[in-house]
Amino acid sequence: MPRLKEIDIDPVAVDDDGIVVAETLGAAGDFTIGGALASNGAVTFDYPRQIIQTTVGNESARTFTITGTDEDGVAQTLAMTGLNATTGETAEYWSTVTQIASDDATVNDVKFGTVDEIQTKTYPLNFYSTEAATVSVDVTGTIDFTVQETFESLLDLSSPAVNATWADVSALADKTADTTAAVSKNATAVRITVNSYSSGAELQARIIQSRP
């Protein structure tokens, strides 16, 4: 019998102040994690997400340090430069956020929240199998996704999401409709990135791989 992994992504709407509602700090210290996504001073996301920073004034002299965990639940810290009256997203994805601190007072309000970009945890494959794994994706609504693969030994990495080299599976890159395709033979793991979605969209994926 083939091995089967199932992934169900039914994301909530984006919330650009879901972590920190607009706040001006009078000195170095922590922002209040008290947005709609927060509970008891921290945030656990529905799925690992990128974070957006929005500034009213020029905060380019500030450094905001975000602390939490990555897609695979590994501790992660990011020093994010403040922006000049604009918005910017992290390249990193976050499962949780437990602290956002500023190295000094802010000029004006700053807020932090989520955008429409999601990345799943790492799903290991049986790279000894004589057959490549197949990924079958069903979508509902408007959603754009990419399946990525890696060939690195997960046992040698403290965090696959951060330290592995990932590549898009060409037959499963930037897709917006139901799609089925095989990943490369001997790939050690896969993950799915949601590049964008509209409210109400869903994605169900099945990873199927024969036993050796």
Structure notes:
- There is one protein chain.
- By secondary structure, the protein is mainly β.
- It has two domains: 3-10 and 120-209, Jelly Rolls (Sandwich); 20-116, Jelly Rolls.
- The protein is built from one helix and 17 strands.
- The chain has one helix at residues 160-163; strands at 3-9, 20-23, 29-30, 38-39, 42-55, 63-69, 75-81, 87-89, 94-102, 110-119, 123-124, 134-140, 143-150, 167-168, 179-182, 189-197, 202-209.
- The strands form two sheets. Strands 2, 3, 4, 5, 6, 7, 8, 9, 10, 11, 13, 14 and 16 form a 13-stranded antiparallel beta sheet that branches. The protein has a four-stranded antiparallel beta sheet with strand order 1-17-12-15, with no helix packed on it.
- The longest helix is centred in the last third of the chain and has 4 residues, at 160-163.
- The model has no long low-confidence stretch (mean pLDDT 95).
SSE layout:
Elements: E1 3-9, E2 20-23, E3 29-30, E4 38-39, E5 42-55, E6 63-69, E7 75-81, E8 87-89, E9 94-102, E10 110-119, E11 123-124, E12 134-140, E13 143-150, H1 160-163, E14 167-168, E15 179-182, E16 189-197, E17 202-209
Antiparallel strand pairs: 1-17, 2-10, 3-9, 4-5, 5-8, 5-9, 5-10, 6-7, 6-9, 10-16, 11-16, 12-15, 12-17, 13-14, 13-16
